[in-house]
Fold these 4 entries.
Entry 1:
Amino acid sequence: MHSSVFALLQLAASAALLALLLGPARPAHAHPGHMHRCPPPLGKFPFDAQKFSGEWFVVARTPLLKIPDVDSKCHKFTYSTESQGNETRVSMKITIKTDEKAMEPEVKGHFSNRPNAGSVMQGVWRPSAGDKWMPGVFTTSVLVTDYDTYAVTVTCKEMYFDKTDSFDRLLIPHVLSRTPELEANALAVLKNVLTGIDIDEDTIKDQDNSGC
């Protein structure tokens, strides 16, 4: 990656970390397992949803819900956007390949066109086309992006489990790239952005996109 581009990437990551750290702090006595709330929905500003649309490959992520992860490759998001009044409607197809099958969940939602809120999307998802939309609304924040090369997003949904009378959150961070792979130094900087939202860097795994 060209040195000037990498310098801009470092600056963007530092700015995102500063914004996150200015949010509500975690009490010193709090254990990460007790954090059931989603982080503040902070994101990039200004933000252009149209420029963000198109194909993105997941190059790093964390396993879902602390469950042993399924071996998979070629995670790809395809965003489509359409302006409707004071919001930008979003549809997204997710492609996930495993050794046994391919999965194609779908997402629909909207980016707000209100000042300072354009990079935060509210949405719902379903396992595949034709399935019912799953209950509850999640929030996705675009923390940093240059639109042409890289992006960091974090999706969060707060949940209640009736059987155990307990609360938790589903927190899904992604490092995205317009190509199946991202230069190693740039990837390392982008992973550091995620450490500012209670995500242990050791849990962030590189995604196998070989053959995509």
Entry 2:
Amino acid sequence: MDRIVCNPEILGGKPVIKGTRIAVYLILDLISEGYSFEEIIKLYPHLTTEDIKACIRYTSKTEDQAWLKAELGELPPYDWGSEGPPKGKPVQYKSGIGLIIAGDKQ
């Protein structure tokens, strides 16, 4: 992961490719729009295939835990109405999958 860095002085601390001001999200947006690695490198000739792969790896490693960092204390209280909150099954977090019903053997 040493190809991806976060520095408060560069793009407000967003993850970028080391030695550049190219944000990880920019590369991921290009990939999602159908750009190939070769096309991205034509746009940014100083990048390598390994830089692009590092962006994908970085996201896959951090995305699973992004919800853990949410500052839920800043949210306003939700009005569930007279019925109160809906009843549901207890859930648990499973790494690499997300939330699952507690006790399931996935």
Entry 3:
Amino acid sequence: MQEKIDPAKVRGEEVSQVEEIAGESMYRCYQCGKCSAACPATPEMDMLPSQVIRYLQLGLPEKVLKANTPWICASCLQCMTVCPKGVDLSKIMEGVRMMQLRHGENRIEMREFDEEYRKRAPQIAFISGLRKFQSLS
């Protein structure tokens, strides 16, 4: 399937925001695919880690923002360890997660947890999960 690339979006606002949040440049990546080969979570992902970077490089953040891959990333740093350019993909995944949350896309809802679980769950873990997966808006 061919994608239409808009030159104006290649270094567009959303892609720049992901880079700013992540503090990491995705343009150093030359698509060797080592990150995807090293990632232990790829069987669960709907998009390979190298594809996430490529879509962002091509100015197609909407593809990445619809994916579950950033939420499956465990930030284990395997990708950065094998990357010949030292790109920290886990930071980019975090930037994408933050963008999704800024768009108001929640990944969990408080009401999805039954009352019994909410009573026995460690509060710090519960709050940490809500901060990571729920929009503030």
Entry 4:
Amino acid sequence: MTTPEDSGPHHADRTYRSTAGLVAGVLMLALGLWVVTDAVVNGEGRVRWIALAGLALAAPLVTAFTLRPAVVAGADRLVVRNPFRTVVLPWAAVEGLRSGYSHEIFADGRKYQLWALPVSLRQRKRAARAEAR
């Protein structure tokens, strides 16, 4: 027996991230590593331990707020990965999308912020002017 084939095309999931967030995160981690390396090599006394502790506290936060956020759009679901929470939403559950000062998605009576998608204030003002005409 043969299995029926899907007639529609199959596309890979598409991931959206903030390029500026990724660049800033990598630069902050590199700067922190450079400062801590200098403190460990050239520091005296408690300076080494304080620098290592600072990096141990700051690196996970920088990673969470700059490198982790992503929005993955698939054929059947939307995955919103924010710094401390991941939400999987089937497309059928999505009620709406709003873009103001940030992108927000509404599903199941709740509102979710899309941290990974930046909003351009310049384009927002341009759209408001065009709408006012």
